[in-house]
From TrEMBL:
Signal peptide start and end residues: 1-32
MF (Gene Ontology): hydrolase activity, hydrolyzing O-glycosyl compounds
Protein name (record): Asl1-like glycosyl hydrolase catalytic domain-containing protein
Record's compositionally biased regions (Low complexity): 29-52, 499-568
Native source organism of the sequence: Candidatus Promineifilum breve
PANTHER family: ALPHA-L-IDURONIDASE, BETA-XYLOSIDASE-LIKE PROTEIN-RELATED
Start and end residues of each stretch annotated as Disordered: 28-74, 486-568
Cross-referenced InterPro entries: GH, Glycosyl_Hydrolase_39
Superkingdom in the source lineage: Bacteria
Transmembrane domains' residue ranges: 584-606
Entry keyword set: Membrane, Signal, Transmembrane, Transmembrane helix
Length: 612
């Protein structure tokens, strides 16, 4: 039985246990929960309620210090809808967010309406906290539609008052000038299936180009300092959509004079760290082939879990465990930086009251009851340990994922397995000692031998495989070593999955001015010379692992199945008795599920032996 056969058996067994847990949940107190109404910002104590992967409450950690208390430490890291919980966003350490301006909601009955997604007070609070707000313009209200559902007058010049889309864009951009100077035009227009949940655009690619062109010209006329982002493409619905858009732009005689009608390219990529790297690299190549050097952002990424005890997903897209979601966050970010992404954001900060109807899976780093999913803490650690990155290189991508981050005065190597069995990583040393920190913030000091650091990585849970590898790797580690000027030792490595992807790309390290958008070098260059700076804040960071009760350096696969956290709502004696009976029946169901799983596992192994 090879490792992937064993992984599939393991996965089948896990599914059976999850089904049993689901039965237990349906009989237990958690099943009585209803979707809450929208809540205001919680007190710090409530927001810091952490939970383990099995949903149990854990003791709150000391708030993590940052170089400037309460301020973001690196402009490149963001989260969508940070204004849903500003306090938690501050503790997370994100520096930017996105607000969705749905035209049909902002101006529901006509241009005299004004109902923005966040009021001036909320916007001012975001800006005061040091978070840049990026606006997303999308949707067409009924009063502004033509017979096909597109903005009425879209083919007219941008300065024509009958071009309803141009008027809306110009009004919004002018109204927020100086507060919101970045605007994304539309969302995932490449999803062409009208029955798909993410479908937003009924027009052709050529008509979308006209929408983007109109928005760009109208926005620049309203605010010359505005930075206009191209809509995020999913790639997987139509891999050639971005190239087709650029070819349509190239055919426009005024495109070159107007930066091809976008200042930044964006992408939305989920579930697969490998896909994050490959698609961003492909997008960069599409622009390189046409002589374009626009910055590239990963505006949405995540791997929503299927087994959260408070939101168990029946019809999940891909199998993801709570701790796999946590592992995905640093793996996706490292892959994005290595592919040349200037900024990255996780979708999204918090589950909200309408999410069960809008989203098939739980995307929030925080649940609606204010408790944190493990991914929150993994992202908080990742932000602090990846801050200040000036260049990123994907050094290895076979059984081990290995990404080197160049930082002032030091090098951080991100490490994780991509197989269900443990793997060994060897990292060339530039110092005698290094800190090894896991994705929960637990740290130890290790010593180099013969110029090499050797790290034993635990196997991945591997609920889902993609080709020959686990979709999401195991526990992520950060190896941090000082750059003392010595030449690194040569470390022999296995054959790479892709031999063309190991060249570093320089990355923006400061917040770009809206009037001076930094340029990403279209061809790979070497990392800039490092200058000694104080050690990053991450080296004094308290462990969020204590809040998530994850074993030190344990494989993600070692996490137990999720079980519900105890209810905080008081109950009377009668209810308590009923609850105890329900819990007992849940344990019976769980025991039956485990027994069934073990029986099937034994049957499968016996069958395989008999067949040999």
């Amino acid at each position: 039985m090879n490792i992937f056969t064993m992984a599939r058996v393991r996965r089948a067994f896990s599914m059976l246990v999850l089904i049993a847990v689901g039965g237990a949940l349906s009989n237990g107190p958690a099943a009585a929960q209803t979707e809450p109404t929208a809540t205001t910002e919680a007190t710090p104590a409530a927001s810091e309620t952490a939970t383990t992967s099995d949903g149990a409450a854990a003791e709150s950690p000391t708030p993590t210090p940052s170089p400037t208390p309460g301020r973001p430490i690196d402009i490149r890291f963001g989260v969508i809808e940070s204004y849903e919980d500003p306090g938690a966003a501050g503790r997370l350490g994100v520096a930017w967010t996105r607000a969705r301006f749905q035209w049909a909601d902002v101006e529901p009955t006509g241009p005299d309406d004004w109902e923005p997604p966040l009021d001036d007070e909320a916007l001012a609070a975001e800006l005061a906290a040091g978070r840049e707000v990026v606006g997303l313009l999308i949707g067409v209200p009924q009063w502004a539609r033509d017979r096909r559902g597109l903005p009425r007058g879209l083919a007219l010049p941008p300065d024509d008052p009958d071009n309803t889309w141009a008027v809306f864009v110009g009004d919004v951009v002018a109204r927020y000038a100086g507060r919101i100077d970045r605007w994304i035009i539309w969302n995932e227009p490449d999803i062409d299936d009208r029955d798909a949940p993410g479908h937003t655009w009924d027009g052709t690619a050529a008509e979308f180009f006209q929408l983007q062109r109109t928005a760009y010209l109208a926005a620049k006329a309203a605010n010359p300092k505005a930075v206009i982002h191209l809509a995020a493409f999913t790639y997987f619905w139509d891999p050639g959509y971005f190239a087709h858009f650029l070819d349509l732009a190239a055919a426009d005689p005024d495109a070159a004079a107007n930066n091809y009608y976008f200042d930044v390219a964006t992408a939305h990529l989920y579930f697969q760290p490998n896909g994050v790297y490959n698609v961003l690299y492909a997008f960069r190549q599409v622009m390189d082939d046409r002589g374009l050097a626009h910055p590239l952002w990963l505006v949405e990424t995540n791997a929503p879990p299927m087994n959260d005890p408070y939101w168990v997903v029946d019809n999940w897209t891909l199998a993801v465990d709570l701790n796999e979601q946590a592992a995905f966050i640093p793996q996706s970010i490292a892959a994005a930086l290595a592919a040349g992404a200037e900024r990255v954001a996780v979708y999204k900060l918090k589950d909200t009251a309408g999410d069960r109807a809008a989203n098939p899976e739980p995307f929030g780093l925080i649940r609606w009851d204010e408790s944190r999913r493990p991914a929150f803490d993994a992202y908080r650690v990742a932000i602090r340990l990846m801050a200040g990155t000036t260049a990123a290189t994907r050094e290895r991508w076979d059984g081990v994922g290995q990404v080197r981050l160049s930082q002032p005065g030091q090098t951080t190597t991100v490490l994780f397995t991509r197989l269900p069995d443990g793997q060994t990583a060897r990292v060339a040393a530039t110092a005698d000692e290094a800190e090894l920190i896991d994705m929960w913030g637990e740290r130890e000091t290790i010593t180099a031998e013969a110029g090499v650091f050797t790290v034993e990585l635990p196997g991945a849970l591997c609920l889902q495989t993609i080709a020959d590898y686990c979709m999401i790797g195991g526990t992520t580690y950060y190896l941090i070593q000082a750059d003392d000027g010595r030449p690194p030792a040569t470390v022999s490595r296995p054959t790479e999955e892709s031999a063309t992807t190991a060249t570093p790309r320089p990355l923006a390290t400061t917040a770009p001015s809206p009037t001076n958008e930094p340029t990403i070098t279209p061809s790979p260059t070497t990392a800039p010379t490092s200058t000694p700076l104080p050690t990053l804040t991450a080296t004094t960071m308290p462990s969020p692992r204590a809040a998530t009760a994850t074993p030190v350096a344990a494989a993600v696969a070692e996490q137990p199945p999720a079980t519900p956290a105890a209810e905080a709502t008081p109950v009377n004696a009668g209810a308590a008795g009923a609850s105890g009976l329900a819990s007992y029946s849940g344990l019976v169901v769980l025991g039956l599920g485990v027994a069934l799983g073990l029986g099937l596992l034994g049957w499968g192994l016996a069958g395989r032996r008999a067949g040999k």
